[in-house]
């Protein structure tokens, strides 16, 4: 990798005058790359310009212009602004675009998602199957001309609710009308789903052969969907040789509800409570990410006091997330309940604070465009102070005393390799896993948002990239978050908590925005395209859990089946976010 | 020494176990009730909590903060003659802002002129769909719809509440959210006073003109 040419925006069009043009649509940025030259340009972006981390790949369906677009967001792990480049192709079914998995391995699952939901076929992709919907599903739901089974109207609010809102149940309407289609000559009696066949064929293709050193048959084991250690309904098909994992394919989508499509039906404000349900442990962080993105698009400031409240809430959320992580990791490793309930105690105290300020423990729905809903009452502020100064530091120490000398636990964690720095970047892994591999990449420092540049804290980093480092880095992060909250409490000014007047409909100018924040699990980003209407034209979530999962095959291949559960736990996935 | 760390771990567990009983004894000596009392529950969910942390639901219930929100209800004012004065004007803002679209309002039309009357004929909320986001209460310009504290609504039937079932008196609202209710009442009083003053000024100005 050569040194990056400049930390500022790169003029890609000057480097490739033939194949790249700048995107001049109002509200849009970046470059349009010709489909034929995509791989050549992408290679240059990574090798010449130094954009080694591809964070998001997604598609947009411009139905009126009869175009489909694939948007790529590339960043540098040394920090700084990103580079947006896109490919535009004529709308067809399916659309074909070359796959960039050869350049950034982290694109693998995201391209599968784009294929699944948008019908964009990535030629050269190693394993292009549906990922969230099941094989045999008809159509691509994020296309603008696709309608769900209980389709009522394109956008909310629905006209049937007011002024003549006679209540009816959705299922009493006939869903089998123009919005449901079957393949030709479909016979449900004879239908055999293709997904299993395809899954095992793909597993077979991606299995190492004869390298386990054992003279034994390979067997295929299905873990899940109902397996306690998968943190939800996640199924993993594993090929074993003895106890060694030779190949592995996760099967996800059991909790899929097409959050993106729901978002496109909703108004901007109505999406906020739905983001709570992404990573349900960290609804504050999700709100933060979404509101930051929309504020970017609306170009409005955030009230000063609200900025501090936001940071306090986001960091409290990180603390409780990591506490739960530690507790649930112990559950996964077999120390049932005692450590996890100790962690839950502290989490309950933090949730009490969330409840007192926002009204709900988990589904907070606390952020609004330009600020937050309501001020923190004084007694709650005092509670936060007590927790942050007295209780949580002491309890974190106790947790360390409790666990970190335990020989059995150390035996399970020490020296079990998760991922090294180079591979972590290749696979677009972000968050604590990347930092435990030795890359101090934290968006709060690398690409500061909100007011994080005002606080004095260290980016937690460890260098071994084994399970132990991945586990210890959570303790480091809890301590750093406590530091941030303490400073925020001291520096919080008086004043209004929202820069805007409360309004149930906001005006969002046409354009696009990609807002990203450091959620406890990694980079959480939202990509929104607005066409000036009350609903977003395209709303895409780039969840940390989902993209980090891309590396799971690489992480687990060659390790023992007993460690699989711990390795999976280290990625700190949550199905609400993974399956969306 | 191998196993020292395990002993250390066990020491933490032992301390936690023991703290429950030391607290029980010290509360007993002070003559205070640690269980089944508001004080005890508050202590067990505070930063000073040691040992036992759990609350024995349903005999004991956690104290809910004022802002806690659970499914909406409609507020009515009690008028002197015992009639219910519904605050809702069926403007439809709550139905428009509701993310899962679970609010259904039938607006009243005057039978003679066919013009809308600011009273709902009926009002349905599908509680099975409601996601407790609180937008309806937040954006209601008339303080007519509010979030409840009553979370025990499990039932064998489906929960579609109509106007009758949704209505609760303003005094109930003031009892669950005293600070908010006082604030809103004050704001309304100021607004009405300003309106009255304006009307008076207009009336005073009219004969002069």
Structure explained in plain terms:
- The complex is a heterodimer of chains A (580) and B (209).
- Chain A has helices at 12-15, 38-47, 107-118, 195-205, 259-265, 268-276, 283-298, 304-333, 338-358, 378-403, 407-413, 421-426, 432-436, 443-446, 467-491, 544-549, 552-556, 561-570, 575-578; strands at residues 20-22, 31-33, 53-62, 67-75, 83-90, 95-98, 120-123, 218-223, 226-227, 232-233, 235-241, 244-251, 367-368, 371-372, 511-519, 522-530, 538-542.
- With 580 residues, chain A is an alpha+beta fold.
- Chain A has a 5-stranded mixed sheet.
- In chain A, a hairpin with a 4-residue loop joins strand 3 (53-62) and strand 4.
- Chain B has 209 residues and is an alpha+beta fold.
- In chain B, a hairpin with a 5-residue loop joins strand 1 (70-78) and strand 2 (84-86).
Question: What are the key terms here?
Answer:
heterodimer; A: 580 residues; alpha+beta; Beta Polymerase, domain 2; Enolase-like, domain 1; Cytochrome-c3 Hydrogenase, chain B; 3 domains; 5-stranded mixed β-sheet; 3-stranded antiparallel β-sheet; 17 strands; globular; disordered N terminus; B: 209 residues; Alpha-Beta Plaits; 2 domains; 4-stranded mixed β-sheet; 7 strands
Please give a quick description of this structure.
The complex is a heterodimer of chains A (580) and B (209). By secondary structure, chain A is of the alpha+beta class. Chain A contains 19 helices and 17 strands.
């Amino acid at each position: 990798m050569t040194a990056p040419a400049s930390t500022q925006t790169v003029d890609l069009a000057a480097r490739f005058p033939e194949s790249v043009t700048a995107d001049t649509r109002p509200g849009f940025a970046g470059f349009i790359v010709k489909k034929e030259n995509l791989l050549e340009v992408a290679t240059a972006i990574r090798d010449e310009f130094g954009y080694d981390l591809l964070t998001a790949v997604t598609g947009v369906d411009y139905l009126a212009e009869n175009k489909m677009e694939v948007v790529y967001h590339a960043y540098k792990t040394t920090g700084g602004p990103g580079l947006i480049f896109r490919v535009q192709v004529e709308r067809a079914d399916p659309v074909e675009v070359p796959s960039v998995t050869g350049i950034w391995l982290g694109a693998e699952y995201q391209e599968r998602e784009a294929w699944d939901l948008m019908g964009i076929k990535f030629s050269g992709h190693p394993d292009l199957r549906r990922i969230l919907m099941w094989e045999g599903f008809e159509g691509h739901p994020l296309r603008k001309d696709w309608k769900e089974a209980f389709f009522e109207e394109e956008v909310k609010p629905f006209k049937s609710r007011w002024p003549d809102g006679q209540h009816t149940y959705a299922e009493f309407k006939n869903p089998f009308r123009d919005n449901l289609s079957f393949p030709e000559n479909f016979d449900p009696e004879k239908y055999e789903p293709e997904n299993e066949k395809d899954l095992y064929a793909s597993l077979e293709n991606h299995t190492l052969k004869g390298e386990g050193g054992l003279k034994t048959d390979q067997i295929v084991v299905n873990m899940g969907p109902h397996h306690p250690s998968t943190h939800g309904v996640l199924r993993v098909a594993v090929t074993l040789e003895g106890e060694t994992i030779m190949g592995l394919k996760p099967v996800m989508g059991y909790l899929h509800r097409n959050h993106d499509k729901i978002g496109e039906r909703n108004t901007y404000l109505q999406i906020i409570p739905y983001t709570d349900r992404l990573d349900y442990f960290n609804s504050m962080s999700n709100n933060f990410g979404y509101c930051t993105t929309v504020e970017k698009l609306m170009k409005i400031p955030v009230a000063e006091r609200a900025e501090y409240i936001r940071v306090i809430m986001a960091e409290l959320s990180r603390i409780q997330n990591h506490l739960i992580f530690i507790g649930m990791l112990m559950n996964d490793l077999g120390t049932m309940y005692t450590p996890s309930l100790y962690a839950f105690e502290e989490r309950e105290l933090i949730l009490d604070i969330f409840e007192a300020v926002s009204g709900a423990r988990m589904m907070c729905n606390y952020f609004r465009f330009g600020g937050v809903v309501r001020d923190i009452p004084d007694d709650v502020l005092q509670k936060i102070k007590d927790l942050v100064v007295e209780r949580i530091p002491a309890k974190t120490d106790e947790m360390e005393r409790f666990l970190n000398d335990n020989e059995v636990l150390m035996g399970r964690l020490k020296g079990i390799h998760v991922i090294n720095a180079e591979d972590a970047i290749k696979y677009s892994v972000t968050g604590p896993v990347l930092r435990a591999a030795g890359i101090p990449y934290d968006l709060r420092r690398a690409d500061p948002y909100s007011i994080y540049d005002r606080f004095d804290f260290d980016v937690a980093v460890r260098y071994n990239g084994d399970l132990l480092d991945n586990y210890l880095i959570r303790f480091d992060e809890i301590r750093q978050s406590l530091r941030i909250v303490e400073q925020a409490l001291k520096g919080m000014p008086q004043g209004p908590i929202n820069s805007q007047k409360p309004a149930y409909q906001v005006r969002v100018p046409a354009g696009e925005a990609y807002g990203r924040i450091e959620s406890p699990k990694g980079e959480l980003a939202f990509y929104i395209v607005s066409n000036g209407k009350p609903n977003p034209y395209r709303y895409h979530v780039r969840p940390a859990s989902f993209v980090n999962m891309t590396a799971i095959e690489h992480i687990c291949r060659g390790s023992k089946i007993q460690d699989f559960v711990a390795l999976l736990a280290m990625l700190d996935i949550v199905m609400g976010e993974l399956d969306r | 020494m191998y196993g020292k760390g395990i002993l250390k771990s066990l020491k933490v567990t032992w301390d936690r176990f023991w703290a429950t009983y030391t607290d029980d004894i010290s509360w007993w000596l002070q003559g205070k009730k640690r269980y089944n009392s508001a004080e005890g529950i508050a202590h067990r969910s505070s930063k000073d909590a040691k040992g036992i942390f759990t609350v024995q639901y349903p005999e004991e219930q956690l104290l809910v903060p004022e802002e806690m929100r659970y499914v909406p209800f409609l507020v009515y004012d009690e008028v002197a003659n015992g009639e219910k004065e519904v605050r809702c004007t069926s403007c439809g803002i709550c139905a428009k802002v509701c993310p899962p679209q679970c609010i259904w309002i039938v607006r009243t039309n005057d039978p003679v002129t066919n013009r809308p009357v600011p009273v709902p004929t009926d009002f349905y909320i599908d509680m099975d769909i409601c996601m407790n986001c609180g937008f309806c209460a937040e954006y209601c310009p008339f303080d007519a719809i509010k979030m409840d504290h009553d979370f025990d609504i499990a039932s064998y039937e489906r929960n579609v509440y109509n106007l009758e079932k949704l209505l609760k008196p303003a005094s109930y609202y003031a009892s669950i959210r005293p600070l908010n209710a006082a604030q809103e009442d004050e704001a309304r009083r100021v607004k009405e006073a300003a309106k009255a003053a304006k009307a008076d000024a207009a009336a005073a100005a009219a004969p002069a003109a």
